[in-house]
Amino acid sequence: MTSIAVCPGSFDPITYGHLDIITRGAKVFNEVYVVVLNNSSKNPLFSVDERIELIKKVTVDIPNVKVDTFQGLLVDYAKSVQANTILRGLRAVSDFEYEMQITSMNRVLDDDIETFFMMTNNQYSFLSSSIVKEVAKYNGNITELVPPEVEKALTSKFK
Ligand code: PNS
Fold it and tell me: Which CATH superfamily is domain 4-157 in?
């Protein structure tokens, strides 16, 4: 049986923390769909097209990763690509409540879809797109936090 996972998120923008989960997920699942979704509590800096473009650039060397977007519920997207797993990264205890809420909601919506968590590498346990944007905004060094393509995109956003 082909194992297909969906790795959802805002990815505004993708960081080395996301990339770590995607890379490791691609070793566990036959196919990983990285999907840019709308998080109604966030106000994105990058357009969906820009975010997709950046994800495509930094995952180009991972053959079983596909990049997509969807307007609607994550479980509906998962069904549309025959994925039975949602892949999420966990950084610290502080992520737990938020992730539990999303996971429980998705289970209510469709209990055939399982959520699979991977602990982020220790070196990225503090990392988030928001913190990267904050540092980039004030010209701080983000070289260790995001791939060069993303660093370039952030620099030009805040120029
Ligand atoms: O990277 P994020 O912002 O933590 O990702 C959250 C995301 C986009 C995965 C979540 O908001 C989501 O699944 N949005 C799509 C709408 C949906 O399915 N909502 C119900 C579950 S919360």
Answer: HUPs (3.40.50.620)
Q: Is the CB of 62 under 6 A from ligand 1?
A: no
Query: What would the pLDDT profile of 71-90 be if each residue is shown by its tens digit?
Result: 999 999 999 999 999 999 99
pTM (two decimals) = 0.97
Q: What distance in angstroms lies between residue 103's CA and the mean position of ligand 1's atoms?
A: 10
- The answer to whether 129 is a known catalytic residue is yes
The whole-angstrom separation of Cα 122 and Cα 27 is 19
CA torsion sign, 75 to 87 to 57 to 13?
positive
* DSSP symbol at 5: E
Nearest CA owner, ligand 1 atom 11: 39
Query: Beta 65-69 vs 114-119: how paired, if at all?
Result: unpaired
Q: Where are the domains of the chain?
A: 4-157
How do beta strands 4-9 and 65-69 pair? unpaired
User: Among candidates 18, 25, 97, 96, which has minimal Cα distance to 54?
Assistant: 18
CA–centroid distance, 121 to ligand 1, in Å, is 22
> What are the helix and strand counts (H, E) for the chain?
6, 5
